[in-house]
Design goal:
- With 185 residues, this protein is of the alpha/beta class.
- The protein has a single domain, classed as 3-Layer(aba) Sandwich (Rossmann fold), CATH 3.40.50.
- It is 29% helix and 19% strand.
- It has 5 helices and 9 strands.
- It has a 7-stranded mixed beta sheet with strand order 2-1-3-4-9-8-7, with helices on both faces. The chain has a two-stranded antiparallel ribbon with strand order 5-6.
- Helix 1 links the parallel strand 1 and strand 2.
- The protein is globular and about 40 Å long.
- The relative contact order is 0.16.
Length: 185
Amino acid sequence: MKYYMPTGFWPLREEPYRRFFSKMGWVVSSEESAQILVLPGGSDIGTFPDRDWIEATLYRDWTATGKPVIGICRGLQMMMHLTGAKIIKHIPDESEKIMHTALTGHWTGRSSWHTTKLGLLTNSRHHQGFLSAPSEWEVLDMTNDGIIEAIRQPRQLAVQWHPERDEMINTKALEWWVEEVKKIL
């Protein structure tokens, strides 16, 4: 499988993605020859306007042609944002009822962990999220406090967590993700 992942003049640790997809037998490719678009994790929407514009344009182009798209963390956020979902800018500020562990301040490279409604143990490196999805999205999984962790629509899959991280190797969550990816291909 050939995939395209946009990169540019913004911070993005590409190596974990390249290593992860390589283990799956996928190879990075040019946009023109790729079979699937991957929107990776990273900084909040609005932090790097050029990145937002590039990813929004790619997402619209790919979905218009029916090519598959995968979103990871920020990728899920971008996909949901572009289809009209209301993003929670900072989960702890939204409600005292949402007990979602958030990463704030200096990132140390460690993840917070959540058990989802499907019983998956997922890693978390985000402080933004969604409590609801537009009607065209099927919510596949969420945390016990209601934050969406996985969504799908035809030819699209996105997760709020990071399957590409080494800490996810040999987990039930990663096995689940691989099976869900097969469904959109």
